[in-house]
Specification:
- The structure is a single chain.
- The chain is of the alpha/beta class.
- Among the domains are: 296 residues, Alkaline Phosphatase, subunit A, CATH 3.40.720; 73 residues, Arylsulfatase, C-terminal domain, CATH 3.30.1120.
- The strands form three sheets. Strands 7-6-5-4-8-1-9-10-2-11 form a ten-stranded mixed β-sheet, sandwiched between helices.
- Strand 14 and strand 15 form a beta hairpin.
- Helix 5 packs across helix 13, helix 8 packs parallel to helix 15 and helix 9 packs parallel to helix 13.
- The longest helix is centred in the middle third of the chain and has 36 residues.
- It binds calcium ion.
- Calcium ion (CA) binds next to loops.
């Protein structure tokens, strides 16, 4: 029914302050009314709620829950990200459909799985001619902007304004592609730390560029904390005197699982390189930046190199872990500062009251769990991504949600929040009812995942799988190897129980669910042959 989504969103905001039971009853009753009946009932209250909310989508690259203090404060505090959680909702089960950068972004643009939006692995080019949520918001009167990391190769479409990194983009002194509906795309050079530059551009757009008569949707998207974790000038020596706790699985031996876990190339022990470890300096720094960099890293590196030959293998892993994780956390800290400035601006301008702020990352990440850095796997650390959302008057401050939600739902959520009808070919669901504490009865109980990038970086085998949050079934289909995990008994996923007689019933049920989801999402059979011997080399870096 046209207009129904708009009607639902207005209801949502109007009743957010009421008790959950009363709110649920009222919400369900009033969904049955037409817009006209609703207008007559709510009168002047609707006029203020009718205003379409602004949307600020804050997005990072490779940021995991283990480095966000609203989830886990054992390594870092992120007070500004936590502001979003405290003012709104923290989701504990936000799963990505394909844990890798470009594909996650394409899922968010389209609300469709990788096999339908066509961007299945990094290196693909996004077909920007297809339906995307920014285009639909523009049609509905929104002003749209994307600032920062884009990583979809093709020039952004559907944005009044874009100012984006070329590809991955460097941590310092990035060239950025500027353009939009009215401007021809132009590459511009910048000097400074990329996180700060993206923040300055977002603030400049909010202050000077946007049309204040229209609602806006801003995608504020960081490169950080992507590999190779180069900290900003302010944080180069932060944490120098701290020891970061090690995860329990740092020395995982990959036993009791299918063969891919032991055949990857993403171990801190073996696969981080001298540039990752800052034993070599970045090559594109200005003289001033280089001086600060060397002052921070040279003494630390000299101390390490002087004792390296006398260190045990375990001590070297520990040193690498500390170096890697600290640099990662330093990058997160700059992003947190940047978010604080944008939130301050929204508050100071009186915009915060009518703005949906969502924070997320393109997927999770291994901060040493299983001995790894990187992502890709359907294992918990990379399958899960942080999701925080605040929307005054709609989301109850400090709430926590445990439903299975996904980056597949973001496009639908933005459209629903704006009162725009969700196209029937989108595959996710709006989170707006969940925001109000009214999870629909038919909300998903299981989730489909598919990773495709093999052969590819880090040598992670193609796999698909299903999880219901309690059990997880994974199929490495080119090898026809399976894993089944009992997440309640084995949350670290160290022992596959696939083929275990005790789990036969669960295994059968999970296979049936996997089949059902593949059919539901129209997943084609993947018959890509395995690479020939020698095509896929295991890379080792000497440090
Ligand atoms: Ca990423």
């Amino acid at each position: 029914m046209p207009g129904r989504q708009a009607n639902d969103s207005r209801l949502t905001r109007l009743f957010a302050g009421l008790s959950v039971t009363f709110q649920t009853t009222l919400y369900r009753m009033l969904r049955c009314f037409s817009i006209l009946a609703f207008l007559a009932i709510s009168g002047s209250a609707l006029q203020s709620a009718e205003k379409q909310p602004n949307i600020v989508f804050i997005f990072t690259d490779d940021h995991c829950e283990q480095a966000l203090s609203a989830y886990d404060d054992s390594r870092i505090t992120t007070p500004n990200m936590d502001r979003i959680a405290n003012a709104g909702m923290r989701f504990t089960k936000c799963y990505v459909t394909n844990a890798i950068c470009g594909p996650s972004r394409a899922v968010i643009q389209t609300g469709k799985h990788s096999h339908l939006n066509g961007f299945i692995r990094n290196g693909n080019t996004f077909d920007g001619d297809q339906q995307t949520f920014p285009k639909l918001l523009r049609k509905a009167g929104y002003q749209t902007a994307v600032i920062g990391k884009w990583h979809l190769k093709s020039t952004p479409q559907g944005f009044d304004y874009f100012d984006v990194l070329k590809g991955q983009g460097p941590y310092y002194n990035p060239p950025m592609l500027y353009g939009g509906i009215k401007s021809k795309a132009t590459l511009r050079k910048h000097t400074g730390y990329t996180t700060d530059i993206i923040k300055d551009k977002a603030l400049a757009w909010l202050k000077n560029e946007r049309d204040r008569e229209k609602p806006f949707m801003l995608m504020f998207q960081h490169k950080a904390p992507h590999r190779n974790w180069q900290p900003g000038p302010e944080y180069l020596t932060w944490l120098d005197d701290t020891t970061i706790p090690e995860p329990d699985t740092l020395y995982d031996d990959y036993s009791n699982r299918a063969s891919p876990a032991s055949n990857q190339a993403m171990e801190i022990k073996t696969h981080v390189n001298p540039s990752d470890l800052k034993l070599t300096a970045p090559k594109n720094l200005t003289t001033e930046q280089k001086q600060l960099w060397d002052a921070a890293y040279k003494p630390k590196n000299e101390a390490f190199l002087a004792k390296k030959d006398s260190m045990s293998e375990k001590e070297i892993i520990q040193w690498k872990y500390q170096r890697y994780v600290k640099d990662y956390l330093r990058c997160v800290k700059s992003v947190d500062d940047a978010i604080g400035e944008v939130l301050d601006y929204l508050k100071a301008e009186g915009l915060a009251e009518n703005t949906l702020v969502m924070y997320s990352s393109d997927q999770g990440w291994y901060l040493g769990e299983h001995g790894w850095f990187d992502k890709r796997w359907m294992y918990e650390e990379s399958l899960k991504t942080p999701l925080l959302a605040s929307w005054p008057g709609v989301i109850k401050p400090g709430s926590v949600n445990h439903d299975i939600v996904s980056n597949l739902d973001f496009a639908e959520t933005f459209l629903d929040a704006a009162g725009v009808e969700i196209p029937s070919d989108m595959q996710g669901k709006s989170l707006v009812p969940i925001f109000t504490g009214n999870t629909p009865d038919d909300w998903r109980q299981s989730f489909y995942y598919h990773y495709y990038e093999f052969p590819g970086g880090h040598n992670v085998a193609r796999h698909y799988g299903v999880t219901n949050g309690k059990q997880k079934l994974i199929h490495y289909y080119q090898l026809d190897e399976w894993e089944l995990f009992d997440l309640e008994k084995d949350p670290d996923e160290l022992n596959s129980v696939y083929g275990n007689a005790e789990y036969r019933k669960i295994q059968t049920a999970m296979k049936e669910e996997l089949h059902r989801l593949r059919k539901l999402y129209e997943v084609p059979v993947d018959d890509t042959p395995l690479p020939k011997p020698g095509e896929q080399k295991k890379r080792k870096n000497k440090v």
